Amino acid sequence: MKQENIKIALVGNPNAGKSTLFNALTGLRQKTGNFPGVTVEKKSGTFRLAGSNGSADRDVTVVDLPGTYSVYPKSADEGVVMDILANPKHPDHPAVVVVVVDASNLQRNLLLFTEISDLGIPTILALNMLDVAASMKLTVNAVQLAMQLNVPVVKINARTSEGIPGLQQAIRQVVEKTEKPAQKYFYVPKGNEPALIEEVRALHALDNDYVALQYVCQHDNFSFLAQPVRAKLDSLIEKYAFDETGFLADETIARYKTIKPIVEKSVKSEGATEQPLWTRKLDKILLHPLWGYVTFALILMVIFQAIFAWASYPMDWLDENTASFISWVKEVLPKGVLNDLITDGVLAGIGGVIIFIPQIAILFGLVSILEESGYMARVMVIMDKVMRRFGLNGRSVVPLISGVACAVPAIMTTRSISSRHERLLTILVTPIMSCSARLPIYSILIALIIPSTKVLGIFNMQGLVLFGLYFLGLGGALASAWILSLFIKRTEPGYFMLEMPTYKVPRWGHVGFMMYDSVKSFVLEAGKVILAISIILWVLSSYGPGDHMEVAEQQAVRAMSQAPEEEVAAAVASARLESSYAGNFGRFIEPVIRPLGYDWKIGIALLASFAAREVFVGTMATIYSISGDSEDVLTVKERLMQEKNDLGGVMYTPAVCYSLLIFYVFAMMCMSTIAVVYRETHGWKWPLIQLGYLMVLAYVSAFAVYQLMS
Amino acid sequence: MSVRTVSQLQKGEKAIIRSFTDRVMSLKLLEMGCVPGCEVRLDAVAPLGDPICINVGGCYSLSLRLNEASTIEIE
Ligand SMILES: Nc1nc2c(ncn2[C@@H]2O[C@H](COP(=O)(O)OP(=O)(O)OP(=O)(O)O)[C@@H](O)[C@H]2O)c(=O)[nH]1
Ligand SMILES: [Mg+2]
What is the CB neighbour count within 10 angstroms for residue A8? Predict the structure, then answer.
């Protein structure tokens, strides 16, 4: 007989180590990071619970939830916790809740524990971060704590996976216990609260007082309650003159009164407790009025140096090898249409982006180190006041910084920004931060026009220009936020209040995995799109309407009858491309992009890159390898350098390159970003506004740059 | 002398939380462990003077804006 999976949920304060425990239990790689608000939506996984005393193995479904400080949500991500816990019909409603607590800060962590325990779902307390507690000279007596709280308490270290078997055993015991112990409440209702609770319980057939109170306090957050039910609850609140804010404050204070003696009995400290020494020392520097900014600037510099200068060695290597690989394939395969499709179409397109793997890996690795170390929280602090000037919040720093890797997860992290207004602004401007998909475009164009000379002996000129582009993206994001904030009405005051985590040494395995994962999804995701687009593009550019292509070819041959054979071949290829379907299409949109300095070939690539920016370089590679003479295979850069404009001059002049660079800094060319904004803002209004203003901004700035420079 | 608030603490100065002036803000502060009777200490001030970092009860470091800190009255 197949037993249903046991469902458990991981609940706890932000940054207590829930996702790390989730990974340890399930073997999955859910994102973790050393600052509050990493997980913003529920994530499920499964593991197998070994049987004991002859009982069979069971499968367990475990749900990792966003961290909260109490059962009363303060931001968009936190709502999901109570939506699941207060609704027994929810598919994820757990049979057991594992409350993960940070043992170095037991008092505050137990507040949430007592609330969860009062909800009446069987609970296990997982004591995490005991190593941090030990470095603060705190020892926690788990047996004493279990007696005081009347629940199983398990010591774990989520980071090193210590204590996981103990936790599994505790889960097993709680699940197998048949009779449910009588509910013991940590909070005892006062005044007319019991009468109100009684009425709500009867109305909704609830068997728990505290759940009834939650119906009263947060029915508007519960997606499972219908509108008439909410109205009825509102009338009850009026009937009993229930003052919500007053009740919440009283409840919390009462809980702390209960918790205090429990903590005193179970935690021993040697002398006054202090944050770990390293954290205090580092904060002296990293939050210092001067050194704080200096180190931040230095860290950013190192990142740019790394993705430009250091990454160039493996990139050059990859570049040359893909080119020689493609010529090899061309040689080996029999000549014909299939050969052309594979080499000029698919391989040229994919080879165009494969060379950027080192940059993507380094970028994701460095962002992951910032997140894992705990430095991200400090950046939020030193940037909060600056961000506020632009209508944003210190917490907007996380989306903005991780937007440098990819805007899609970055926009999801905005859920932890409590003010709706600040969150919306952050969502609207995050795509202006230069994401890793722009990196290939930047790199190739910079390599074309900027010499790789040294400035001040250490900085690479190309790296500095790249830095400038990222800076432009940041500046553009902040300025747009400021302008948008004039139009979008502020509905509620935003607050900051951020727990500062202790510094932790990044787990190198984790950082390595982040790099691996980003490269994998870059190659697979971009690869899929590029594969599709380059095949379509190849077909569209190898065939044309009617006999146009043949006519064009004959014309070219006639016009060039005196020229050497090689030039004739090049002219023929180019004439054929121009009269193909793709060429016609490019010619059609050319009038629109001409003022920006682009020709129809760039136009094709521009259009193709609406699917995703990565496609741009791949498309260019495909187009130019079709139009080039087909014998020798060149690297993408060499092709661009050889490209001529209509007048026979160099196509990629500095004016054209800068115009393209600026265009890509601002343009919102990414379907996935539009989709995620749609999801996060629940409608088409904001993604369309965003698409519109970014396109106008991109067009106007590129136009200005081209006109000024040419 | 009028009542002092956390926003007026000097660097390194300790104080005991007495009460709150803003009801909604107090809910969030309470959740974060700032309970009346708890000791706080000003640890750091961000480079532009705001926000500040306070140590709450010796347990952990909390960063908050000056206008948030000014709703916490101290003894
Ligand atoms: N020293 C130490 N660090 C730990 C332990 N458990 C987790 N960590 C680290 O604590 C940080 C936070 O872990 P997460 O698992 O992301 O925390 P979370 O509870 O999921 O946080 P949110 O998703 O923000 O609510 C990570 O840097 C972990 O490596 C532990 O037992 N000891
Ligand atoms: Mg998490």
Answer: 25
